[in-house]
Specification:
The chain has helices at 15-21, 45-52, 66-77, 95-103, 120-135, 140-153, 164-169, 179-182, 205-220, 236-249, 262-268; strands at 3-8, 23-26, 29-32, 35-38, 60-62, 82-87, 110-115, 155-159, 186-192, 195-202, 226-232, 253-259, 273-279. The strands form 3 sheets. Strands 10-9-8-13-11-12 form a 6-stranded mixed beta sheet, with helices on both faces. It has a 4-stranded parallel beta sheet with strand order 2-1-6-7, with helices on both faces. A 3-stranded antiparallel beta sheet has the order 4-3-5, with helices on one face. Helices cover 40% and strands 26% of the residues. With 280 residues, it is of the alpha/beta class. GO terms for molecular function: lipid binding. InterPro entries: DegV, DegV_C, DegV_domain_contain. This is Fatty acid-binding protein DegV. It comes from Heyndrickxia shackletonii.
Length: 280
Amino acid sequence: MKTAIVTDSTAYIPKEIREELNIHMIPLSVIMKGETYEEEVDLFADQFYEEVKQLDKLPTSSQPSTGKFIELFEKLAKDHDAIISIHLSSGISGTYQGAVTAGTMVEGVKVYPYDSEISCMAQGFYAIDAAKLALEGKSPEEILLRLNELKASTRAYFMADDLSHLQRGGRLSSAQAMIGSLLKIKPLLHFVDKVIVPFEKIRTRKKAMNRIAELLGEDAAKGIPLKASIIHANREEEAMEWKSELEKLYPNVDFSISYFGPVIGTHIGEGAMGLTWMLK
């Protein structure tokens, strides 16, 4: 059985890796200055953060249309028996539901929509692992089993430097009542039940990053092989420095660097920093 792997642009998997592993990407969009841009296609992270600085009004984002999913799925149906479509958390976007709907409207291929319940490189890790297994000829059921194993081991925390983006975007969910106090600190945030909620309130950026490192250390100390990704919002130099520090602290963890692209950056703002890790 030949299985295609699809993910959306918020996984922020580099193009060369997508091409190498045959990962198909469907883009979300950012609406800015009255124009709609598909991220990772005609709008990229560095360009986005520069443009936003000059805007009076924050950009907005939109999910792919069901038609876009149908178009891609029908194309893949020509030479695949199954499609696993891995998407950002259904608690913050309707993208996953779009894949579900499209999957019921395409003939000749079995579509398995997968809710990552998270986003960014955590979602990217899922797609990469799934693609490697698909290339090995594993069945959709075997691939989904692996994704669930990864999900059970996944942890991710991030710090938003400017919470006004999350507040205005309505992405803080149950934390909305806490916004007034949160705006004065550097809160650690994470996903719980598919939505973003506060984890801890911390006073400075450095202390917040140190706390994330401590949380990684708790899992690294168990001796299990881990892979991790530092995720930044236009703070590449800081991310590289942090990677160097973490590699010294946790030599048994395989680190990489990723980024918050335009769609996620629209909601968390420039300067955000995060770390995700899971079983290697």
